[in-house]
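Throughout our pipeline, every protein is held as a single compact record rather than as scattered files. This encoding replaces a full spatial description with a residue-level series of whole-number codes. The remainder of this section carries one protein's record, kept here as part of the documentation.
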Amino acid sequence: MLPASGGWFLVLMAMLTGCAGSLPPVTHPGVGEALQNNDSFLSTQSRQRLAGTNGQSGFYMLDSGQDAFLYRAALIEAAEQSIDAQYYIWSNDPSGQYLAGRLLLAADRGVRVRLLLDDFNAGTIGELFAALDTHPNIDIRIFNPARSRSGWGRWVSFLLDFDRINRRMHNKTFVVDGTAGIVGGRNIGDEYFGFDAGRYFRDRDVFALGPVVGGMTDNFQAYWNNPWAYPVATLYPGTPAGGDLAATMDRLRRQATTQGRLPVPAPVDFEQGRTELTGMFEKMTLASGELVFDYPFETMEEPAEAPRRSARALQKLAEAATREILIESAYLILTSEQLQLLDIDDRQGLQVSALTNSLASNDLVTNHAGYARWRPYMLGQGMRIYELRPDAEACQQWLSRDAVCSTGEVSLHSKSVVFDRSTLVVGSFNVNLRSIYLNGETVLIIHSAELAGQVADDIRSVMAPGNSWEVSLDDGGDLQWRSDEQVYSSEPTVGWWRRVESRFLSWLPVEKYL
């Protein structure tokens, strides 16, 4: 995913730039192992609640940003032995600093904390994590880093080492005591939890308890022990020492204790965390499921020409569907190659519908341009496409802070697919070429008509006219956007410059990198 500002410039530069100045891979002194405490609260809950279910796991949908934040906070408080967290983005904002502070307090009481962060968005928080890494119970690594750590030099590093840098760890998992975890589309940051007054990313996670969490652990281990997972201390050797370091740690502990910058109260000890989780466990759905993840590339010179493991798993489910495929994806690009495999026209009775961002709701014009390039083709192949309105009526249901809804800065960030209302997929996988070929991704496949139907109904509700525009081709083959009785012949509710920028970028054949 390219940065929002100057993205078109980077795309053009990337096309003219070759590989140079690559960092070497690192050698880890030993293989980091996952920990599991069979006597912990979470392990006990797993055994008791899943006894006699023939290997099923418990699942609970985290559709609201507030729930997603609170259950992560509750898991930290319930941790007794280990916390393994893996994220594409961990923002240096109130929620990001608060959760980092609670991880520090967990480490103070003896919990082993391992945090793995992709480097693409690590520039604003790397020094803070380098300070945390000095704690004896905290170990932090940065995946696939650029040589330069800040400023324009950082973007130049990305461009000079383009092939390697484009292979991002987009996976997002949060595992505690090897038994309970959260997987989905959310990064760590105010805009994902509904705490930012200016933007909200509608998203979806799943809380899981039981055997399926083993796949999340395998996913974490594969990246943690990879030669491209750099210890954060090697990237930030100038971490504040002495009094400055102590002041940083004390500030984090204080922020995590007072909660003064949070709009909602969070659990702050083991009892509160356990109480929060116990109430949620009562509402879990039992089902079979599996976690599929992409292994890191064996070498960064390996060609990225074949669909990766998570993409192949989704393709297999799509080929087996007979009635309906519902896609919810922040970024959507399917080219002739993917749609020929799907073969919608020749599969009578199969309807494929997709919900994605409009140009008005998309946070990245570059990504919208790649989608716009293939949008007429996708429609011509029989897909039905709905684009989120920035003034979606459902925003009032998603958020308690009305100010966010009134600004129009509401974007879709969810990554879910429902097959025949019987199988549900939730994860980090956008239905686009970057996820298919380049990124490391994680998808949780749940075989449950109950959960699949629940998410399908939710997606359909957002496709309704008050929330989205349906995009179609008119009789002359031109695009049109319809919501109730309103019909637009160009991208709705955006200025001419944004339309021009998107149109120009859509001419560039770089959709694989968006």
About this structure: The first helix runs from residue 7 to 15. Confidence is low (pLDDT under 50) at residues 1-20. The radius of gyration is 22 Å.
